[in-house]
């Protein structure tokens, strides 16, 4: 058995037996791991509060033959303000689900952890526009996952002129010369393309300082959702919750 200390965010948890849990943590040193938390559902458990989704903690773990086991934990940030607000909770759940789905087990990725933590702190502590955060997060996470769309040049001929179409199937902007009207293609106006490029360049901490048109953002959000589902071949359960809350 080897004992080690990691820091990470709890992505999800499932019950095990009568009083235990298996938690999935996205950690700094080991990437995404599953950890058994013995007794975490007992009323007097010392570790219970650190096994809840969103919790950012220091964890002492050891590895048996197959599984990691939690021995101690210390909360760094529980992100209560996310959990207390239904809109923030729905976006936060989507962020955790995306991190879970787009990361293989035990593949360390400090950039991805940085993106996760910045997003959660921003969601928790600021009045950032949630739709802007959502679309920016989507752009950043697909880029870190190896599916960065080409938005500066034509994905086919590399020209940077007459870029008017975003092709999901080709993976980015297509110029007028290369445009073929088939597959999942969206015509973008200049301000939509500008906003798309802003999502590419902006740091999350600067999101509160940008001006943008809500309708442009809505369109890009729709495109990013389709882009993600095309490349991950997945449906995200928490996305339905976001849409339901918006409708009500
Ligand atoms: Zn072209």
From TrEMBL:
It holds the Pfam family RecO_C. One of its GO terms (biological process) is DNA recombination. The keyword DNA damage applies. The keyword Chaperone does not apply. Residues 1-79 form the DNA replication/recombination mediator RecO N-terminal domain. GO terms for cellular component: bacterial nucleoid. Keywords: DNA damage, DNA recombination, DNA repair. InterPro entries: ARFGAP/RecO (IPR037278), DNA_rep/recomb_RecO_N (IPR022572), NA-bd_OB-fold (IPR012340), RecO (IPR003717), RecO_C (IPR042242). Belongs to the RecO family. Involved in DNA repair and RecF pathway recombination. This is DNA repair protein RecO. The lineage of its organism: Bacteria, Bacillati, Bacillota, Clostridia, Eubacteriales. The gene is recO.
């Amino acid at each position: 058995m080897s004992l080690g200390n990691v820091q990470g965010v709890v992505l999800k948890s499932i019950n095990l037996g009568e009083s235990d849990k298996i938690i999935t943590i996205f950690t700094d040193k080991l990437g995404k791991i599953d950890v058994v938390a013995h007794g975490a559902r007992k009323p007097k458990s010392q570790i219970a509060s650190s096994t809840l989704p969103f919790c950012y903690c220091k964890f002492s773990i050891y590895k048996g033959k197959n599984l990691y086991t939690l021995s101690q934990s210390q909360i760094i940030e529980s992100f209560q303000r996310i959990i207390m607000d239904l809109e923030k909770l729905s976006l936060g759940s989507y962020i955790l689900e995306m991190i879970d789905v787009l990361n293989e087990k035990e593949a360390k990725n400090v950039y991805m952890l940085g993106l996760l933590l910045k997003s959660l702190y921003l969601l928790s502590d600021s009045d950032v526009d949630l739709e802007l955060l959502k679309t920016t997060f989507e752009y950043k996470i697909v880029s870190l996952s190896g599916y960065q769309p080409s938005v500066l040049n034509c994905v086919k001929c590399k020209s940077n002129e007459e870029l008017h179409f975003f092709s999901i199937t080709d993976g980015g902007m297509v110029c007028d010369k290369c445009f073929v009207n088939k597959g999942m293609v969206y015509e973008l106006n200049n301000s939509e393309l500008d906003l798309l490029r802003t999502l590419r360049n902006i740091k999350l901490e600067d999101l509160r300082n940008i001006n943008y048109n809500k309708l442009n953002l809505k369109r890009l959000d729709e495109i990013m959702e389709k882009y993600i589902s095309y490349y991950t071949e997945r449906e995200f359960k928490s996305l339905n919750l976001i849409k339901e809350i918006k409708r009500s």
